[in-house]
């Protein structure tokens, strides 16, 4: 089930094309106010309602169009979940999981994470891998990299530092600072990185 469908189950409106979530999934955009005044959140939501991410035709969810700007180097469109313009309070988030946002949760957002399980040992045996790296990073990491490029940087750091994970993590962070500054300038997001090395005989992390 997609997030679009899940939020529709929580709180929906009926249309001629089927049930739509009352929560809006919209492309973010830079919206200018009049006379150099910033627009209110409500005014922004009214404007953004014209640029939905999804549409429903005969109960089939489809992509509606393209966004205004990319949020990362993988050219993924910046988008928001936001309350409709008619809502009592006007809130928006760039993700569908959060803590403490009780009003927008009433529209279908949730604090409960998606959880998947992977049998890493079985996968390593199947692929004849001796080591698997598990990386946890914040937006300040993932926004700056194509996944394949990050994979190459990570494994090169492992080779350069002979798998000493504190040095590997520091090396990758330094490279990330340089890449992020080139891409985003002063608007770079905060950066957090955890690197775990899993082997058939044990694991370590940094």
Care to describe what's here?
This protein has about 210 residues and is α+β, with helices and mostly antiparallel strands. It folds into two domains: about 5-105, no CATH class; about 120-200, no CATH class. The chain is built from seven helices and ten strands. It has helices at about 5-10, 40-50, 100-105, 120-125, 140, 145-160, 165-185; strands spanning about 10-15, 20, 25, 55, 60-65, 80, 90-95, 130-135, 195-200, 200-205. A three-stranded antiparallel sheet has the order 3-6-7, with no helix packed on it. Helix 6 runs antiparallel to helix 7 (about 165-185).
Defining key terms:
32% helix; alpha+beta; 3-stranded antiparallel β-sheet
């Amino acid at each position: 089930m997609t997030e679009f469908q899940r939020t529709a189950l929580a709180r929906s409106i009926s249309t001629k094309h089927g049930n739509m979530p009352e929560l809006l999934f919209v492309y973010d955009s830079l919206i200018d106010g009049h006379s150099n005044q910033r627009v209110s959140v409500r005014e922004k939501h009214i404007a953004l309602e014209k640029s939905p991410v999804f549409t429903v035709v005969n109960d089939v969810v489809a992509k509606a169009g393209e966004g205004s700007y990319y949020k990362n180097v993988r050219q993924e469109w910046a988008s928001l979940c936001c309350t409709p313009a008619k809502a009592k309070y006007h809130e928006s988030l760039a993700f569908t999981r959060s803590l403490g946002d009780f009003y927008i949760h009433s529209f279908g957002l949730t604090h409960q994470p998606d959880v998947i399980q992977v049998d890493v040992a079985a996968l390593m045996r199947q692929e004849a891998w001796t080591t698997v790296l598990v990386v946890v990073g914040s937006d300040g990491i993932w926004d700056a990299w194509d996944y394949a490029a990050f994979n190459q940087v990570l494994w090169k750091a492992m080779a350069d530092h002979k798998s000493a994970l504190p040095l590997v993590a520091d090396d990758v962070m330094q490279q990330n600072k340089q890449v992020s500054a080139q891409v985003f300038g002063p608007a770079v997001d905060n950066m957090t990185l955890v690197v775990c090395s899993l082997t058939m005989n044990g694991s370590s992390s940094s």
